Amino acid sequence: MLTITTFDRVPQAARGYVRDLRVRWACEEAGLDYRVETVPLDPRTPDHVARQPFAQVPILRDGGRVLFESGAIVLYLAGRSAALMPPGRGPEVTQWVIAALNSVESWIFPWLIARFQGDEAATGKALPQMNARLGQMQAVLAGRDWLLDEGFSAADLIMADVLRIVNDAGALAEYPALAAYVARATARPAFARAHAAQMAHFATQDGAPE
């Protein structure tokens, strides 16, 4: 069985956004059974670093294979499921996964961090760059449901999850195609199951001993 490693506990604001959610979602879409194990959020342990050099999550173990980085893990799982990677479309799926993480998420994060820190000047400085990327994705998704003609794929799983936190922060009001895209993706039963499982996992840790 696949084993997904996530943190034992995280602050309330992070729940529902920790990136093991992407791996849970991929497993749910593909019908792959998985179990969850944890590593401490603090302090990070040598064993954690041995498996993930940046001491982050998620980590996936599949037999003797250990993988990190949510995009790489989702692509690995997509290779086992036509529900995530339509036949013959691997290069296009990979292209959009990398675009989501490199060309979109990396431009969103400065705005998110500045907003979380309450730094109005930095938030304002990051906003035009983020909006430029959102406008480009608005043009891509206007008039279409998913990134590939074949329907939902791993490309949408990653792209929608990147955009989800911006949407939840109310920053997609001017980008109706993106807001609708996130709504379609998060209405999928597999997302609902993955999200509920992550929330339940962290809730069970609230009363656990330190």
CATH fold-level assignment of the largest domain: Glutathione S-transferase Yfyf (Class Pi), Chain A, domain 2
The CATH class label of the largest domain is: Mainly Alpha
Order the strands across the largest sheet as they lie in space.
Answer: 2-1-3-4
CATH architecture of the largest domain: Up-down Bundle
Helical fraction: 55-70%
Task: Provide a count of the helices.
Answer: 8
Identify the overall geometry. globular
How much of the residues is beta strand, in percent?
Answer: 5-15%
* CA-atom Rg in angstroms: 17 Å
Strand and helix order: EHEHEEHHHHHH
Key words describing this protein structure:
4 strands, Glutathione S-transferase Yfyf (Class Pi), Chain A, domain 2, 210 residues, alpha+beta, single chain, four-stranded mixed β-sheet, Glutaredoxin, 8 helices, 2 domains
Describe the protein in words.
The structure is a single chain. This protein has 210 residues and is α+β, with helices and mostly antiparallel strands. It has 2 domains: 2-83 and 191-204, Glutaredoxin; 89-188, Glutathione S-transferase Yfyf (Class Pi), Chain A, domain 2, CATH 1.20.1050.10. It contains 8 helices and 4 strands, in the order βαβαββαααααα. The protein has helices at 20-30, 46-51, 70-78, 90-117, 120-141, 154-168, 176-186, 189-205, and strands at 2-7, 34-39, 59-62, 65-68. It has a 4-stranded mixed beta sheet, with helices on one face. A hairpin with a 2-residue loop joins strand 3 and strand 4. Helix 4 (90-117) runs parallel beside helix 6 (154-168), helix 5 packs across helix 7 (176-186) and helix 6 (154-168) crosses helix 7. It is globular, with a radius of gyration of 17 Å. The relative contact order is 0.15.
